[in-house]
Amino acid sequence: MKKELVLMSMEDKLAILMLNNVPNNLLNDKFLDAIEKKLILSKNKGARTILISTKLKHFSAGADPKFLINSQSNSDPMRLINIIEKIEVPCVAAIRGGALGGGFELALGCDFIIASDTARIGLVEVSVGLMPLSGGVQRLVNRVGLARAKEITMFGRRYDAKTLETWGAINMVVPEIKLLDSAISFSKQLANGPTTSFKEIKKIANITALKGIKEADKYMKKSNNKVLTSEDAKKGISFLAGKLNTINFKGK
After folding, report:
1. Residue 105 annotated in active site
2. Active-site residue (options: 11, 88, 125, 215)
3. 93 three-state secondary structure
4. Global confidence as pTM
5. What is the homologous superfamily of the domain 6-191 according to CATH?
6. Cα-Cα-Cα-Cα dihedral sign, residues 161, 166, 168, 172
């Protein structure tokens, strides 16, 4: 029986994707195809948040060497992070074990990163004469600042999760035994929130990070209109006006 490279389950409006490319979730075109298909399926099933974690010991130990060879010719190295970032709804990465090289870049494409207290994380490409190939440098600059991003990428060390939380690279560190439960609880809070608002917040934040505040300001009128005309916002305004006692966001 053929083993699925990415296992998917739905809990209400939360899609949970478990990476399952034995033994260490090494990244290659076939694996990325599987991730992309499950992301698209999640969207088609109405997911309002997507959680990406691992069924194996490690989140991902990085790129398959054959994938790196192909990247010199016909593979798009930015495909890795673009697959995640183009998803409109919030994406959460839950890391245990190693998240190294491209594995960490995969997580950096997500909006939030939760890691176990035993995780080892880093952009280690320089140890074999490479650099982060999938946008990890620039995304770390956005998260931790120029000096720390240079340190992380130029020294190529494996960091403990608590250090990276302190530096702002990841959002939360939890005991390994509680990782999945904590990540699901965190993700469900997003899945039950005002999805249209989250989509526009994500869009504005990403435009700001990539193009600056002025470009984001140009998009604000369009974002504001989308949010103010959403059903969830109308419910929220009615709640503020005292016309509703509770708000149950439907993601519309």
Report:
1. yes
2. 125
3. strand
4. 0.94
5. 2-enoyl-CoA Hydratase; Chain A, domain 1 (3.90.226.10)
6. positive
